[in-house]
Write a structure and sequence with these properties.
Chain lengths: 267, 595
């Protein structure tokens, strides 16, 4: 039976690797300026993890094949080099790999989180609540009016809790259910949650960030390809979690200008 | 280590049914009680996973009788989206707490730790009884959530605040969520009592000659795990108490100000949802090792028996397990890379997470390297132990991805994570449980299990679990998000065939488990009577009858002369020498030169 285990292990190992090698299930094409670094990091890790996976499974299988079902009383032999060689090998190989992954991984992370957005980046406020995202644009004055949570009333369409009568900066604010952005323009997201934890995930943008109630978080990105992409919630937020989504609409600058003008008329 | 005659824990033979089988202070009965409770929990947990998988691919399928459990959650037997989340929460909670913690650690540990160190019982037998019954109460409180108000909570096994702290945030978030928090708090008390008992017993009740380094690897694993548990559950317990206070006493530990739920301003202020995440994951990551280290110890113990040779290094395994236990406290933030905590801290948490692969790799290399040149005996126990290595590797390599914050930006919250932790923590630990059961059932119940059925069970489980959990990784790569009751997003539609495949594999693999249950139940009563040492083992559990008498060694504690795994001894009467055999031997250990 040992030989059957060995063959099965090898078949499972190769069978598991085929979809990866054949690129059957892969992330969608990246549409951000920073995403290529994440993709490269993921590919490098896939190579390293893949080699470890295949090597371990195949060596395990080969040893099971060789050393199971032997004649009773067969003399046992020691692994050449003993434990010392394996321990040193593990430290050197895995240690190097870990350092390399850690080091290069830091670069990709730093690009997203340690580089501040450009001064002329466009600001959009995102509010996540059970079970929808809403977006607020500052309007022609470039200023967001203050929020008054006690004034939030979805029935009256006061999603953000604005006081347009008393706050001049709120008067021209534009609230939308879809996020329109111009292509190749840096966007700074100002994120807050209305009720419980949510998350903002756009696969194509290689962006995911939790909304944490009580915290105002920021994120910035530049979309490089015109198109319509799904924004989904990835933090369990209640019964409608699976249905909490919005769309990111990346448009040419003229299209965006027309879109935001049209949105302004609908307030 | 104590003098044998003076310090062994004595108690008189139990009298009467209740004292013998229910409120017993005998560690063996308590071990079996933990095992039985784990078995009950795993059957419920697996049934829940069936319901979840069916709902995901056939959302309109009416499951006969389910409406009886919840007429609102499953009207006419059809699972609603919110009920899916409730089932998922219960699945995760039952499996992590009442299966993965209960069986490999508390179950086998209770039964075998005192015997393997040559003691008559645990250091605190009454505490031991209490720890089980407290755990049992925790289990009942959790299961009660199915039958109250609008059912169990839907906030997942991680119960992130403020979803878990505010009663009005969804069905099950009222009484169900409170019961959840009480259940986990009670469970923590049971585990704290158990951990304290394990540590004291190991340090204080070892028989003559049983030095620390002569303890079998599974004893070491239980000892290290109890040290981890003592710290981890000591953090989760107050966290749950604070959560309960937020829910019932109006405090605001985890709820900040200005939240608006259903257009109503919530009357809380000043709390931090991130505090819950920190407290939860400070427990949650060590919990992974509470589940996997006992399984790793059990598997090491079984492998060395099946290889009929000592492992390449006994000490390296012990030091690696200690290293993993130590590092497990430095990595909790890798669950929170995207939580909005300072992005610099992500790098601080990422590094030890990657470093933890070094001791894990050494474990794997020693298991595989020791196989070289051995006389591998194939039986149900060794098959599951070998399967454990394979699963541990498969689940471990995906950790490379998730340990890096930049990659986590893409994979966090997807099925990739689900595949990763199910393989490395769930399936691997359950393989350890199965291996332990086939190996030790003869000792626990005095009857042999059926080997043919055991092997069929292995094949179905091994191939089946790969069919279920490997595709989870592929789904994650595409960006398939987890905890969704239906795949309404456009890009998820093409992935439905993969989900169908997984569901069919899950149903089939689940069905194979019935073979195990049958085998266990049948052999318990009708199996071939087990000899004292059916696997020609060397450690002390094989130096007493099957099952052992109430005081383990019939009133005379063994004296230990050898290291635990003296296999492959030339010139001895068999190919092994037991720990308590006074026979003089040339040591078979090969790690003398190491470290």
């Amino acid at each position: 039976m040992g030989k059957l285990v060995a063959v099965t292990l090898i078949l499972i190992a190769i069978g598991s690797a085929i979809p990866i090698l054949a690129h059957i299930w892969v992330p969608p094409a990246d549409i951000s300026t920073h995403g290529y670094q994440i993709d490269e990091q993921m590919s490098d890790t896939m190579v390293e993890a893949g080699i470890c996976f295949l090597a371990a499974q195949i060596i395990l299988a080969v040893f099971i094949w060789m050393f199971s079902d032997r004649k009773p009383g067969t003399k046992i032999n020691a692994f050449p080099g003993g434990a010392k060689g394996l321990v040193i090998g593990a430290f050197l190989l895995v240690g190097t790999e870990v350092l390399a992954l850690g080091f290069f991984g830091t670069k990709a992370w730093a690009t997203i989180y340690f580089t501040p957005p450009a001064a002329d980046a466009m600001s959009i406020q995102v509010q996540a609540g059970q079970f929808a995202f809403y977006f607020r644009y500052p309007g022609p004055d470039g200023k967001f009016g203050p929020l008054h949570p006690e004034k939030i009333n979805e029935a009256n369409q006061n999603i953000f809790g604005l006081d347009v009568d008393n706050d001049p900066a709120s008067k021209d604010d534009i609230v939308t259910a879809e996020m329109g952005v111009p292509v190749n323009k840096e966007v700074r997201l100002l994120m807050h949650a209305k009720d419980v934890g949510h998350s903002f995930y756009v696969r194509e943008l290689r962006i995911q960030q939790d909304f944490v109630p009580g915290l105002d978080l920021q994120l910035h990105f530049t979309a490089t390809k015109v198109g319509r992409y799904e924004i989904v919630c990835t933090q369990l937020c209640g019964l409608g979690h699976y249905n909490m989504k919005a769309y990111l609409n990346v448009m040419s600058q003229p299209d965006y200008d027309a879109w935001i003008k049209q949105q302004a008329t609908m307030q | 280590m104590h003098d044998v005659s003076a310090h062994a824990a004595h108690h008189t033979p139990p009298q009467g049914f209740l004292r013998k089988y229910v409120f017993s202070v005998d560690h063996k009965v308590i071990g079996k009680q933990y095992y039985g409770l784990g078995l009950l929990a795993v059957m419920i947990g697996m049934a829940l996973s069936w319901l979840m998988r069916i709902h995901l691919v056939w959302p309109n399928f009416a499951i006969p009788g389910l409406q009886w459990l919840s007429s609102a959650g499953a009207p006419g037997g059809v699972i609603t989206p919110e009920y899916y989340l409730q089932l998922m929460t219960m699945h995760g909670t039952l499996m992590v707490f009442f299966v993965l913690t209960n069986v490999p650690f508390a179950g086998f540990g209770n039964f075998f730790l005192p015997i393997q160190i040559g003691a008559e019982d645990m250091a605190f037998p009454r505490f031991n009884m209490m720890s089980f019954w407290v755990t049992f109460v925790g289990f009942c409180v959790l299961v009660a959530a199915f039958f109250v108000g609008d059912g169990p909570p839907l906030s997942g096994w991680t119960a992130y605040a403020p979803l878990s702290a505010l009663p009005g945030t969804g069905p099950g978030q009222a009484m169900g969520q409170t019961l959840w928090a009480i259940s986990i708090a009670v469970f923590c008390i049971g585990q704290l009592l158990g951990s304290l008992n394990f540590i004291t017993t190991t340090l204080d009740l070892r028989t003559k000659g049983m030095t620390l380094m002569r303890m079998p690897l599974c004893t070491w694993a239980w000892f290290i795990t109890s040290c981890i548990g003592l710290l981890a559950f000591a953090v989760l317990l107050p966290a749950c108490i604070l959560l309960i206070l937020d829910r019932v006493a109006g405090t605001s530990f985890f709820v900040p100000s200005n939240l608006v739920v259903s257009d109503q301003l919530v009357n809380h202020s000043g709390g931090s949802p991130l505090l819950w995440q920190h407290l939860f994951w400070f427990f949650g990551h060590p919990e992974v090792y509470i589940a996997i280290l006992p399984a790793a110890g059990i598997v090491s113990h079984i492998l060395v028996n099946s290889y009929r040779r000592p492992l390449l290094s006994h000490k390296a395994i012990i030091y690696c397990m200690m290293g993993i236990g130590f590092l497990s406290y430095m990595v909790w933030g890798h669950h929170m890379f995207l939580s909005g905590m300072n992005p610099f801290s992500a790098l601080v948490f990422s590094f030890p997470t990657l470093v933890i692969t070094i001791p894990a790799t050494i474990l794997v290399l020693i298991w595989i390297g020791s196989l070289y040149g051995s006389n591998l005996q194939i039986n149900s126990a060794s098959l599951f132990a070998l399967g454990f290595i394979s699963m541990f590797v498969s689940g471990g390599v995906s950790g490379f991805f998730l340990a890096q914050p930049a990659i986590d930006v893409y994979l966090h919250g997807t099925y990739f994570v689900v595949g990763h932790f199910h393989m490395v923590m769930g399936v691997a630990a359950i393989f350890g449980m199965f291996a332990g059961t086939y190996f030790w059932a003869p000792k626990m119940f005095g009857r042999m299990m059926n080997e043919t059925l055991g092997k069929i069970h292995f094949w179905g489980t091994f191939v089946g679990t790969y069919c279920i959990f490997m595709p989870f990784h592929y789904l994650g790569l595409v960006g398939n998000v987890r905890r969704y009751s239906a795949f309404v997003d456009d890009y998820l539609a093409p992935l439905m065939p993969v989900h169908r495949f997984i569901t069919i594999a899950a149903l089939a693999t689940g069905a194979v488990q019935l073979i195990f249950v049958y085998n266990l139940a049948y052999s318990r009563f009708k199996g071939k009577p087990a000899p004292e040492n059916p696997w020609q083992g060397t450690s002390l559990e094989w130096a007493t009858s099957s099952p052992p008498p109430w005081d383990n060694f019939g009133g005379k504690l063994p004296v230990v002369y050898h290291d635990p795994y003296q296999y492959g001894i030339e010139g001895s009467s068999g190919d092994y020498v037991m720990q308590n055999s006074p026979e003089q031997i040339q040591t078979a250990r090969e790690d003398k030169k190491l470290i």
